[in-house]
Amino acid sequence: MGIAISLSAASLLASVPASARGPDGIADIAEKVIDSVVNISTSQNVEAKGGGNNREAMPQLPPGSPFEEFFDDFFKNRRGGAAPKDGDKSGELQRRKTNSLGSGFIIDAAGVVVTNNHVIADADEINVIMNDGTKIKAELVGVDKKTDIAVLKFKPVKPVNAVKFGDSDKLRLGEWVIAIGNPFSLGGSVTAGIVSARNRDISQGPYDSYIQTDASINRGNSGGPLFNLEGEVIGVNTLIISPTGGSIGLGFAVPSKTVAGVVDQLRQFGELRRGWLGVRIQQVTEEIAESLNIKPARGALVAGIDDKGPAKPAGIEPGDVVVKFDGKDVKDPKDLSRVVADTAVGKEVDVVIIRKGKEESRKVTLGRLEDTEKVQQAAAKTKEDPVEKPVTQKALGLDLAALSKDLRTKYKIKDSVKGVIVTGVDNGSDAAEKRLSAGDVIVEVAQEAVGNAADIKKRVDQLKKDGKKSVLLLVSNGEGELRFVALSVQ
User: What is the pLDDT of residues 200-257, one digit of tens each?
Assistant: First the structure.
């Protein structure tokens, strides 16, 4: 019976067209580009306790894994895990090397390689290993942490093959793609699959727009190329989502359109020079869209303006919704972030906004985004003096009060912040669900400034009479950072 079932399955498989099992050209493409794909080996000097066995540097594999013995041998015997010398004391700090392996690909026969930033991050030494095993020291040209891309340079000892970028915007769902890389340090490996999704946002960074593929990608594939059936690079394999650490068909690649622009700038300047609009933006929810008379909900809502940014002299204001930038439609905040970053510094662009239900156009000359990160330290709590209980009024599930000197001190609110302070939020209210809290300051209601709780209640009552379902609040924190919140008035 078992033989009959097997033969039946074989007959069925033979009747399936070859195209249904994958394109015939994969082998030809793999043979054509395999020599342009390289392994990236890095080492880093770290402090470790004497007598250690280097287990902390190893990938964590399930007990009994078929790779466990391989990794034990590789990490202990080949990657700096020698036994301590006579006289070494267990517990003493020593300098030792840790190693990591990833993938990359050659884009210029002069020896220019693209890989992931996380593959070479903090490395003291970087080596490129060719498909034939030749190992060559490489230098770092530049990195972009926001897209996780790095560019390396090495001197080829003989002619090398380079690959070209394709147009990732032309990818179609279901299109066949080929991943080549160095999974689990095994060397050049070829896998194939399809494009499962495009423009995937998985909250890894401000410019997320990944290609999702089910081509098998594992640890060590990072930095390797994703090819189309023309042998062009249409993505850089960057990460996987997996509860096991192995491929479950959820691999993600940075699209070539993004990579090509980043690589050009890194080669030219050694750094990224991104455009800057000087606005803080947030999502236009259905409630916010209803409050602003925008149908359908779309665009990026301007929540704040940088006083030194390009948007302010152009006349863009909080409450404006950007729906088009430099001729490109803006569907959501991510769209605006990406298109602004990709636009040349100093370029004058047309920005279409919706203000109070009407479209207007503004001309903006872009500045340069400075990637400095502000580090905020928590101030030590001091004993607070008792504060006289303020007179409050109820509206929208909020306890509201006038901004007094005592309340400014209690909630650490800057003098520049004007409006009505929230001193309490009803549990289970819409305001609580939207994360309003004591210390927030309501600056505007329905895009009009408010100075006391009575103003808020009056405007909310009027909105109810007008049949509105929600009210749009402009809310500030103690530092003056603004955001819009739509609350139900029903």
Answer: 877 766 777 899 999 988 888 899 999 999 999 999 999 888 777 777 888 999 999 9
Closest CA to 283 of 275, 273, 294: 294
User: Do the beta carbons of residue 461 and residue 468 sit within 8 Å?
Assistant: no
Is residue 196 flagged as an active site residue?
no
Q: Which residue has the tokens 């390289």?
A: 38
> What span, in angstroms and rounded, lies between the C-alpha atoms of 150 and 13?
44
The secondary structure of 54-103 as a DSSP string is -GGGS----TT-TTHHHHHHHHHHHTT-PPPPTT--TT-EEEEEEEEEEE
For tokens 């070494």, name the residue.
88
Nearest-angstrom CA–CA distance, 236 and 286: 35
In 172-254, alpha helices (H):
none
Residue of 100, 196, 222, 291 with catalytic role: 222
DSSP label of 165: B
- Mark whether 148 is an active-site residue: yes
d(CA 471, CA 193): 48
Query: Would you state the pLDDT for residue 370?
Result: 79
Q: How open is the CA angle 185-196-212, to the nearest 5 degrees?
A: 50
Cα separation of 285 and 313, whole Å? 27
Q: Which of 118, 306, 332, 429 is catalytic?
A: 118
Query: Per-residue b/e over 188-207, b at no fewer than 16 CB within 10 Å?
Result: bbbbbbebbebebeeebeeb
Among the options 144, 148, 430, 455, which is catalytic?
A: 148
Q: How far apart are CA 302 and CA 304, in angstroms?
A: 6
> Rounded to an integer, what is the distance from CA 178 to the centroid of its chain?
23
Query: Is the peptide bond between 296 and the residue preceding it cis, with omega within 30 degrees of 0?
Result: yes
Query: Could you report the per-residue pLDDT of 381-395, keeping only the tens digit for each?
Result: 344 445 556 677 888
Residue/partner pairs of 81-90 with CB below 8 Å, 24 or more apart: 81/53, 81/54, 81/57, 84/50, 84/51, 88/50, 88/51, 89/50, 89/51, 90/49, 90/50, 90/51
Counting other chains too, the contacts that 238-243 makes at CB distance below 8 Å and 24 or more residues apart are: 238/116, 238/148, 238/210, 239/204, 241/202
> pLDDT band at 371, cuts 50/70/90?
low
Q: Quick one: tokens of 235?
A: 């993505």
- Would you say residue 97 has pLDDT above 70? no
Residue 74: name the closest of 95, 38, 101 by CA: 101
Backbone angles phi, psi at 77, to 5 degrees: -95, -25
Which amino acid type is present at position 36?
S
Question: Does the reported pTM lie above 0.90?
Answer: no
Which residues are 304's β-sheet partners?
Answer: 280
In this structure, the dihedral spanned by the alpha carbons of residues 242, 244, 245 and 246, taken in order and rounded to 10 degrees, is -80
Q: Phi, psi at residue 10, to the nearest 5°?
A: -65, -40
Tokens (6 digits) for 487: 């609350």
Residue 363 has pLDDT above 80, yes or no: yes
Q: Is 222 an active-site residue?
A: yes
